[in-house]
Amino acid sequence: MKYTVETEIDLPLGKVIELFDNPDNLKYWMDGLVNFESISGIPGQAGAKSRLIFRMGNRNIEMTETITARRLPDEFTGTYEANGVYNIVKNRFISVPGNKTRYITENYFEFKGFMKVIAFIMPGSFKRQSLKYLQDFKRFAEDDIRNLNVIQLNGTH
């Protein structure tokens, strides 16, 4: 299964990359993320491996992330392996007029066993989840700037 999703963020490219490139921010926009821990390599760099645990419904899903390419803003690609699922996600960020950023993900999935059945029955659920992560990141990024501006206006820093 292959598809692309995208959103436009009302922030300049540099700020979007700064927010995206900080693994401490994952918990603010990756719904269901319970734990993110480095396994090997330098976190966020090509070759790094991390373990992610998501709570989905009443069960935990563990996956291993391997960063395969890091050339931000042009590309940040990783593989994500979980029980019965192999996923490649290529993230791209493009500066657009009006001091905005287009965030694009190209997604590729391979399924095994029972997950083949799930993917066949509900193929749209994977695309909806990918789009939700983009929209949640957009909301986090734009709200982060609004909150920072409020703090600065109030004289607190």
TrEMBL record:
<dbReference type="InterPro" id="IPR023393">
    <property type="entry name" value="START-like_dom_sf"/>
</dbReference>
<protein>
    <submittedName>
        <fullName>SRPBCC family protein</fullName>
    </submittedName>
</protein>
